[in-house]
Amino acid sequence: MIQIPRGTYDVMPEDSGVWQKIEEVARETCALFNYKEIRTPIFESTDLFQRGVGDTTDIVQKEMYNFTDRGERRLTLRPEGTASVVRAFVEHKLYGDPQQPVKLYYIGPMFRYERPQSGRNRQFTQFGAEALGSKDPAIDAEMIALALTFYRKLGLKKLKLVLNSLGDPESRKAHRDALINHFKPSIGEFCSDCQERLEKNPLRILDCKKDHGHPLMATAPSIIDYLTDEARDYFEQVKLTLDAIGITYELDPTLVRGLDYYNHTTFEIMGATGSAISTLAGGGRYNGLVSELGGPETAGVGFALSIERLLIALESEGITLQTGNQLDCYLAAIGAEAEKKAAVLLHQLRQNGIRADKDYLGRKVKGQFKAADREQAAYVLVIGDEELANGQANVKNMTDGSQERVAFDEVSTYLKNKINH
Ligand code: HAM
Q1: Which of 49, 319, 348, 409 has the greatest number of beta carbons closer than 10 A?
Q2: Pocket lining: 310 vs ligand 1, CB cutoff 6 Å
Q3: Which of 166, 114, 153 is nearest to 8 (CA)?
Q4: Is 115 inside any structural domain?
Q5: How far apart are the C-alpha atoms of 89 and 274, rounded to whole Å?
Q6: Could you read off the pLDDT of 78-99 as tens digits, one per residue?
Q7: 27-41: pLDDT as tens digits
Q8: Among candidate residues 311, 367, 349, 348, the one with its CA nearest the CA of residue 151
Q9: Ligand 1 in contact with 114 (CB < 6 A)?
Q10: Kindly report the CA angle at 157 between 153 and 159, in degrees rounded to 5?
Q11: How many structural domains comprise the chain?
């Protein structure tokens, strides 16, 4: 038997209502904050991620699904959304749009060849947002507020915002030199990847999964001590804006993130996830990415979160989402003539916006009521010989058990008045 690939999963019909609900809340939240949806391809040129996410990152070095198509093009299943959004921003010259900053969001599958565990999948779904074209520290705060508002709308309470700044290129250069000096004498004790990263990108040593326990990690120079006055001032402004809107945070100078494009603000939102990975969302500012990908100097900031980790957090906080996928009305028919009438009524109900269904397996009336129960139908409409003779259906309210007779041609209006969606 052929099985599903490792690290992937099926969203089965009993669960897809929850996914739809989450996506609906994501879209609502983006509308509140005035972010518009962008949809980009699931595969892109491999070069895009090598340049965008960074050649020395774990994502590019170890986790990408790369392939060559029949035209010998080097392509990659996208491991994240920011590089694609920036590519589209440049390709469609959105920097010339009169409406600035350009505020975008996306929901879709991402792919990383990681070791699967709870909250770590090889195909996962990200909801992310990006704001391009503004350096205002208030937009960093807006991005964080958007993510938190989304989580709170879904009912999550145990959230912690962790904040850091990676500074500007000058701060980064000073920090880079300090890191090289710190690690160089003992670099032989580190894995081969870290040895290679030392000169290329020493910041990446700090998020190495193999060497994270090495004592030199804890004593490594902190970026915060190398921020230029300008970068420090920028970070202060972000914090002041968060303070002003009542968003609390913890500072963590070790928060460097796993992608190369960040500078200035970086952040993660942590949640209660039992023993699973607790980072629910991550993001930050990336002022150099647009020009790196061939566009004009343009500031950017964004975040992404996965629905998989959100589901774990919802479960550990004991939150069940109301999905609203229940049936309004189930038609139970007894006898061949009643069947025919039921088929006509069923079509009418649906045309009138009532979610309705009937039996297609020739079940007895008891079986039809059972089916109605399984669908959590709000009403059951019974049609037998007597109802046919009177021209009325017997409508049973499944919540309180009450029953009423309603003329066939009034059933739609009757149910429409009872149902509110
Ligand atoms: P990231 O930290 O690599 O950042 O991923 C963001 C979020 O995606 C994580 O916090 C986590 O919720 C989820 N995630 C990542 N990998 C997996 C996985 N294997 N399984 C399940 N969930 C996962 C980015 O992707 C950046 N593009 C975020 C960003 C947008 N920065 C600026 N704009």
Answers
A1: 49
A2: no
A3: 114
A4: yes
A5: 39
A6: 999 999 999 999 999 999 999 9
A7: 999 999 999 999 999
A8: 311
A9: yes
A10: 105
A11: 2
